[in-house]
Fold this protein.
Amino acid sequence: MRYRYHLNLAGFLYLAVTLLVGFAATIRPNNLLVWIFGLLLGLIVISGLISGGALFRISMRRLDPMNGRVDRPMVVRYAIQGGSRFFPLFDVRIREVPSNRTDASDWSKFTESAFAWVMHAGPRETVHAEAVFVPRRRGRMKFDRLEARSSFPFGLIGKSVTVGRELETLVFPWTCRIRETAIEELLGGGIGGGRSGPGTGSIGEYAGLREYQPGDSIRSVAWKRIRPDQSPVVIQRAMPSPPRLILVLDLRRSTERLRLVEGSDPRRREEEAISFAASIAETSIGLGVEVGLRIAGMPMPDLPMRGGRRHLGRLQAQLAAIDLDSERLDSKIEIPTPNVASVVVMHVDRVDPALGHHGAWHLLPTNLPEFAERPGELPGRGGSARNAGGESAEDSGAAA
């Protein structure tokens, strides 16, 4: 914990006037000048004692923030408690202090500074404050130190307290809404969406017979199978299984080896591919599709095909944790047969049909405008990508 005093412009001017009055009172002693000089000195002492006493032994901690997302507000909440028995807290600003290390994961590399403000807190009273950050890039964002600063009551002399509180959170990739018809088109290649699942219910394919139980619908009774000496039996049907989709992100080629046209930013193209994959996963899971994720070229675990918001969070966290500066692995990925799930391979520079089976879709970041629900809202994007099988002004387009 580090304590510091700060003298702002108003305090500097006030101190200069105080010194001039003191110099005048020394040269030509006068009761009025001496009283004014004493009053000015007293205000400086009071300002330092009140702000310093209130911040003495202050307690600050972050409440675990939710994961952020690129270009969306991320709220960080703080719990503040004054350590003084007598002095309350007034007009306290809480801010994050950038790290002195050249660390790419420092929060200052992700977003601009933001302040949380506490108007008042009684002695040893715990209050909460919030600061809103807007991350500009994806990855692991680390917070290092907190600073509380106050110049109450006169704004002349401020005091700050800095404490070390390390915390790491993930910033998810930027996403956009994908057209529902586009998701249906992707699922059309080897989906098997109407197949029977492991569960049973009142709709779906025939699965067998069982004895009637109280509460069963009268419509499920197999009347033709009932004899006078038998109890009623009920037709058991299989519940249809939801559609399945496997996303394969092709990152086998390192950034400096990407085959792009002159003037293209390789790192930006990789980030666009990650965002495109995250957008497909988010929209698909919202439509009830089970989505799995495999990252080619990275030593990261595969995520099985699941649905629901919790699984979507795991998918986004996996994509957010990708370190594009790490060593790439030039390896192939085994893809299930077409009747298990649809496969969408997201490439960065060029389509490689060897990755995935014959029914897989192969997409590039340039295909995003034709898949997005609102292409006009895409940042810095145009409609350069053509339909499936064509080629854009930069690279070849999507292929199935």
About this structure: Residues 189-202, 381-396 have pLDDT under 50 and may be disordered. The first strand starts at residue 2 and ends at 7. The chain has three domains: 1-172, 180-189+243-377, 196-240. The two ends are 60 Å apart (CA to CA).
